[in-house]
Amino acid sequence: MWELIRHGLNSSKPFPRMWHTHDLKDHYDVVIIGGGVHGLACAYYLARDHGITNVAVLDKRYIGSGGSGRNTTIIRSNYLTPEGVLFYNESVQLYQELSLDLNFNVMFSQHGHLTLAHNDSAVRTMRWRAEVNQIQGVDSRLIWPDEIAKLCPQLDLSDHPRYPIQAALYHPPGGIIRHDAVVWGYARGADVRGVHIHQMTEVTGIEVDNGRAIAVQTNRGKIKAGMVLNATAGWSTLIADMVGVQLPITTHPLQACVTEALKPFLDVIVVSGSLHVYVSQSDRGELVMGASIDPYTSYSLDSTLGFLESLSGDMLELFPSVSRVKILRQWAGVCDMTPDYSPIMGFTPIEGFVVDVGWGTYGFKAGPVSGKRMAELIATGKTPDLIAPFRLSRFEEGELVGEKGAASVGH
Questions:
Q1: How far apart are CA 67 and CA 146, in angstroms?
Q2: Which in 128, 254, 329, 395 has the greatest CB count within 10 A?
Q3: Are 129 and 80 in contact (CB under 8 A)?
Q4: Is the pLDDT reported for residue 310 higher than 70?
Q5: Which of 280, 315, 337 marks a domain boundary?
Q6: How far apart are CA 99 and CA 107, in angstroms?
Q7: Could you tell me which of 292, 289, 288 has the C-alpha nearest to residue 276?
Q8: Residue 1 within any structural domain of the chain
Q9: What total number of domains does the chain contain?
Q10: Is 327 exposed, middle or buried (0-12, 13-18, 19+ CB in 10 A)?
Q11: What value does the mean pLDDT of the chain take?
């Protein structure tokens, strides 16, 4: 705090840069394509845990400009499959310690996550998820309207709505975080350990020789690479096409919006699987709201009136008292969806080309664990057990990790 005050009083002394600008080197041991939370986290853990510092992170715009800067920052681990629950639970644990680890406040606030059930089928699914979570040691349980009313009295728990609330899956560790703080913290941590972060550096091609990726072509020149990681979102298939790897991914827009700032009243995150809507309240008092992906494939970042009308109607089903609240801003991102709603991580048929892609609407939740485990894979040449279920070959082997029941709403 005193350092901040000193800088404020001494305007002639600028704040030091959080990361440096570098010329492109001719060769890096690891080239990471994508300067979001996944790419930066991988670079950070490569340097911190494995001593691999000759690493370049490339982003065609500025770091965090893609999905990391457009998401709605909900963190949770109450997934449906044992593989997913274990994976996301490790990410929550890493997030809990991230401010101390990075010496940078990422503003992680854990105050609970409610997934509402509006019919008998949804109640069964929530019970199923709760049991899977508990078996894996994750705090999650089915609760009923009397307890829901205590946690979130603003919800309409009467029988008047089209879809009355019957029960909910309550996940106390769920919370929200400051997305740009996470990105900046990882970037700073990687930079001080020797990683080069290259913004405004677009990948235009990847050279392959005898089945191995050997170099990356950019708008700033060619980089020889010992290993190339595709950690992009939205454009992951385009990068994979550069080496001839086909990914079972389709790209969809995802929209969100925020309201004017209100006095704090919403302590928990609220998600409705039937209404396809979710809402949380930020530290500044805004209601951050979103829905599921748009039902068409596109790279468009345009907002639509249809989304806003549908979301507003669903929100008023849950919270009639917010009818006069003004919506201030609306935006969109793009999401890479796989057939089983789980990511693709690990090796590909091209040697030296690995992927951390296909995150749909849930990639920011997994930033720390994905970075940590992909760094382990790159450093050791072996696939960690935690991410083995998400290998690319599972689609040919018929061993899908079906997470639609816990991820179809997005949050």
A1: 37
A2: 254
A3: yes
A4: yes
A5: 337
A6: 8
A7: 292
A8: no
A9: 2
A10: middle
A11: 95
Residue 168, domain extent: 110-173+251-337
Residue 73 vs residues 214, 224, 256, 302: alpha-carbon distances, Å: 36, 35, 11, 20
Banded model confidence at residue 405, pLDDT cuts 50, 70, 90: confident
Which pLDDT score is estimated for 315?
96
Contact 106, 177 (CB under 8 A): yes
Strand partners, 212: 209, 351
Closest CA to 63 of 251, 238, 201: 201
This prediction has a pTM of 0.94
Percentage of residues of the chain with pLDDT beyond 70: 95
Residue 11 has pLDDT above 70, yes or no: no
My answer on whether 242 and 262 are in the same domain is: no
Residue 82: inside a domain: no
Residue 385, domain member (yes or no): yes
Whether residue 84 lies inside any domain: the answer is: no
Q: Residue 328's closest CA among 276, 256, 239, 233? A: 256
Cα distances (angstroms) measured from residue 361 to each of 76, 234, 269, 330: 12, 11, 16, 17
